[in-house]
Amino acid sequence: MTVTSLAACAPKVAPRTRQPAAIPRTTVPAVVGVQPGILSAQHRPPTMADLEEGRSIAAVVYLVFSVEVDPTTLDPEHFVVSLGDGRRRRPARVLLTAASEGDENRTLILAIERPEGAEEVRPLAVTITGPVFGEGGEVLGGLAAEIDDASRPPRLVYAVREAAGEGACAGAAQAIRTFWSVPLDSGAALDLAAVALTLDDSAVVHPTAVDDHGPRRGQVGGQAGGQAGGQAGGQAGGQAGGQAGGQAGGQAGGQAGGQAGGQAGGQGSGQDDGREGGAFQGDDNVVDFCVSATSPAKHVAVEGDLFRDHFGLASAAGEVAVQRAPRT
Known about the structure:
With 328 residues, the protein is an alpha+beta fold. Helix content is 14%, strand content 28%.
């Protein structure tokens, strides 16, 4: 009797050689807004605002999420950071950055202490090991990401369409809230022609102004409000606070009127929320682009060198799909 091995009869299958396509690091697809994930993990040296008495903070890591984070679930014990020398450390602190006004709770900062005997602290990866949740109940525990080196420039990682007038871009048709990988310096004027927004009707437009970018919320938006509709604000400022304010608002293109309208008239984007400058209190990683067109924006692209971070690094060119906020 002849016995035939079943293995000899089995067809030979060639191993798979096809590799998965690489996902561009500078592009965020439209579906990411509904998927809990880490959009960006960026290393930066500590600033004076990051240093604490009694702690040797050697590095900070900014994490940007695709969902808003529930701050009540944040605890340093829920995070582990892998360092370049092979050590694994829990952060000394985990907190929301300055971008924490109600609907901006997407960015965390992890403060990393210098391990004993370490000359250099280079964070390589972060893992959420504990029960961290999004504000909508999304499970963030188990998420992990590689940490970009400190030399990598700031980059655009997320955008969402907000209703104008709800604390941002008063007088505009819509506000496109953008999140960046690290906090941005608000010291320089912006070239709004370097920002291209594609609308649902396929038109491509530029923002008319920016808001929520600076030591005090609405400072830039107040000036833009003076330019776009600041004559009325200047007149109101003049009537409420003196003819000189009204004349300055008219003659200076509404610049003084925008400030007066914001301070004396309290018209939306010119209001002062009391935030002071600094890495934690003023300059953050959120910028609102104000758009006068009514057709919803679906895509935003930015040229390089639009912003600088606190260390003078110019932002990279990039593009993301614009998510739709549930309430808009």
